[in-house]
Amino acid sequence: MAHQLCLVRGDGIGPEIAEATRRCLDAAIATTDGATELVWQQVEAGVDIMETEGTPLPDATIEAIRKADAAIKAPITTPVGTGFRSVNVHLRQALNLYACVRPCKSYAGVRSKYRDIDLVIVRENTEDCYAGIEFQRATDGAEKIIDTINALAIGRKIATGRDSTGITIKPISVEATEKIVRYAFDYARANGRRKVTSVHKANIMKFTDGLWLEVSREVAKDYSDIEFEDRIVDNMCMQLVQKPELYDVIVLPNLYGDILSDLCAGLVGGLGVAPGANIGDSGAVFEATHGSAPKYKGLNKVNPTALILSGMLMLRHIGERRAADRLEQAVAAVIAEGRDVTYDMKPDRNDPTAVGTREMADAIIRKLENGRL
Q1: Which of 59, 222, 234, 351 is catalytic?
Q2: C-alpha span between 317 and 352 (Å, rounded)
Q3: pLDDT (tens digit, 9 = 90+) per residue, 300-354?
């Protein structure tokens, strides 16, 4: 049996950790079931390919991912404030990858103020403020929206001048909300999870987050075997810092999900150990939650753990659960030993015994090959 997979190399440190991840996934399959093969198609996206293609996300890359059983994507640079739109957002919308799943799990040997964290963030991936419906100040679209809002406003106007306000529209629909909340409950049920918490700001945004909360409560009625609760987003942040052990699967709209997934990653040691998955009805893209760190490009220095664990999630998604479990065990063992790890995972970041990206992948592969996992 063969699985047809896409490897999106990304930019910055992307190609280095993509190669380390591919090698670890191949080893996990080869040492678990010799009858299964991973067939890779390497595709490009990011700032490097933009120089030759005129776009950071070529149509050929989207089509290759669409046709594959799954894809794993290395980090891609997103310009801040200017430049091209986020490739990650574009890809999720183009393929309708409506569910972003980000497990946050403690591993022995990773420095953190917390222990035994095991949370899963389930984030709606297509709507909310990330839908990309924005109007630049001093444009006709922005002026018309501002005029309409001010005509309906009571009291102080929202803008002192038509050319001084940018506008972002926050769509929240019944259909997308129901789909993601059902996904969260189905995920909880399939993975032996006990509770789903829906996060919102319905006390202020009554017609968007209010809709989110209403739909969440309706969906929860169909899952009497799973505990349900809701939390206001700012309170949720405090709760996670104070008593994260009370939470399990957390489902959120797009913007809150992006922010709280980083908070939860901080509970387990940072983005370097935080994997991610983007799931749709007919496609799946797995990715680390950290960025492309271009200043480290080509230095064989960065931690590949997050992308390797994202690959572990991909193996589970395509049905290779035994290989996925063995890969996670190998990663955990290397981290716990603390010998063959990158500089950021050493107690002293200047420790001369720190290894590089390739060498950490080599250590994980050796664990897989010794057959005792």
Answers
A1: 234
A2: 38
A3: 999 999 999 999 999 999 999 999 999 999 999 999 999 999 999 999 999 999 9
* The predicted structure's pLDDT at residue 186: 98
Q: What is the pLDDT of residues 58-92, one digit of tens each?
A: 999 999 999 999 999 999 887 654 555 678 888 88
Is 258 among the residues known to form the active site?
A: yes
**Do 1-95+283-373 and 110-128+170-270 share a fold?**
no
Q: pLDDT per residue over 189-239, tens digit each?
A: 999 999 999 999 999 999 999 999 999 999 999 999 999 999 999 999 999
pTM for the model stands at 0.90
How is the chain split into domains, by residue range?
Answer: 1-95+283-373, 110-128+170-270, 134-168
d(CA 100, CA 112): 24
Check 128, 258, 340, 362 and give the catalytic one.
258
Question: Of 201, 247, 362, 367, which is the active-site residue?
Answer: 201
CATH tag, 1-95+283-373: 3.40.718.10
**Would residue 201 show up in a list of annotated catalytic residues for this protein?**
yes
Given a contact cutoff of 8 angstroms between Cβ atoms, the answer to whether 107 and 77 are in contact is no
Sheet with 249-252, strands from edge to edge, namely: 37-43, 2-8, 70-73, 284-288, 275-279, 99-105, 118-124, 249-252, 195-200, 227-232
Catalytic (active site) residue 301? no
Give the Cα separation of 101 and 103 in Å (integer): 7
* pLDDT of 163: 64
Q: Which residues of 32-67 are buried (b: 16+ CB within 10 A; e: fewer)?
A: beeeeebebeebbbbbbbbeeeeebbbeebbebbee
Out of 130, 187, 247, 256, which one is annotated catalytic?
130
What is the assigned CATH class of domain 110-128+170-270? Answer: alpha beta
